[in-house]
Amino acid sequence: MPASDDPAALLPAAFTVAQARAVGVERGRLRGLAYTTPFHSVRVRGAVEANSLTASCLAFVPRLTDGQFFSHETALVQHGVPMPEWPYRPAVHVSAYRPAREPRTRGIIGHRLQLREPAFAVIGALPIENPVRAWRQVGRLWSFADLVAAADFLISGDRPLAAVEDLRAEIATMGDVRSGILARSLRAVRFGVRSPRETRLRLLLGDAGFPEPAVGWNLFDDRGEFVAELDLAFPRYRVAIEYDGRVHAEDAAQFARDADRWAAIRDMGWDHRRVLSHHMGSGGRAAVAIVRDALTRAGWTPGR
Predict the structure, then answer these.
(1) Which residue, among 1, 102, 4, 105, has the nearest Cα to 56 in the 3D structure?
(2) In a domain, 304, yes or no
(3) What is the number of structural domains in the chain?
(4) Residue 183 sits in which domain range?
(5) What confidence tens digit (pLDDT) does each residue in 156-215 have?
(6) Does some domain include residue 302?
(7) Of 79, 122, 247, 269, which has the maximum CB count within 10 A?
C-alpha cells in the first residue's frame, strides 16, 4: 500500500488504538509485527527502547488525559537528578491533582494528589512535575542518602534547579513523611557537591565519627593564587579527600591534568587521598579506613 494511502501514516510514533481506528486503520493491522504494545490500548511503531524510562514515558503520552503528568522519580530523571544506585530501577509514575484522576493500568504507578495548583511543565513533549515537588514525592520511596544526594544536586551547579528554602517550604506546605526523613535530609544537604557518590562518601564519613569536611574547598598558595578545588577538605588537618569514579583513565590528557593537580596539592603540604569506586563497596569500609589513616597521621583522635 502506498504511504499516501496508508491511514497509519497519519499517526504519531505512539498512538492509542482509538486514534488508529478513528483514521481508518483496521484492527487486525494493529496486531502485526510492525507495532509493539507497551501499555494497554497503546501501539508504538517498532520497539520501545529497553531500559529507557524516557522511551516508556513517550510511549505512554497518548494515554495521558487532562491534568495528568509524570511525577516522583520519573520526573526527577527528566530533570537530570541522580537515581538510587543499581539494582534500583525507577518506575513510571503518573499523577493528577484532585479532582482529576490518575491512570490505572499495568506498568504505571498512578497517584491522585491533594487538591493543589499544578506546577508541571512540558519538557521534551513530556509533562513533568516541578523538581521541588517531585523531590518531596520520593520521600516515601528513597533512602536517606538518596534523598540527600538528590537535594545536593538540585541546589548545586551553575544553574541550580532549587534552593534549600524551596525544599523547606515544600515540606512546610505539604508535610513531611516517614518520621521526618525529608527535614533530616535537608540538614545534611551541602552546596557544591559534584556527584551522588561524593554525597554518599560525605555521609559515610559523618557516620564514622569524623569531623565534617568542607565541600568544594578552594586551596590557595602563599601568594593567594588558586591551586585546586578540593572535593572534601579537612583544613585543620590539611587532608584532602577526592572521590574518583573512573574505572580507568580513558582520557589521557585529563588524567595528566589531574595528576599535576594532585602533585600541586601535595606540594602545599596537604595529604591528598583518592577514594575509588571499589572502596565504596561492603559498606564503604575501605573508604573509611583511607580517611581514618589520613586524619590519624595528621593528628586527629576519635572524639575530638
Answers:
(1) 105
(2) no
(3) 3
(4) 53-187
(5) 999 999 999 999 999 999 999 999 999 999 999 999 999 999 999 999 999 999 999 999
(6) no
(7) 79
Are residues 287 and 201 part of one domain?
yes
3-state secondary structure 181-234: HHHHHHHCCCCCCCCHHHHHHHHHHHHCCCCCCEEEEEEECCCCCEEEEEEEEE
Please, which pLDDT band fits residue 65 given cuts at 50, 70 and 90?
A: very high
Mean pLDDT for the stretch of residues 247-271: 84
pLDDT in tens, 77-109: 999 999 999 899 999 999 999 999 999 999 999
173 and 246 co-located in one domain: no
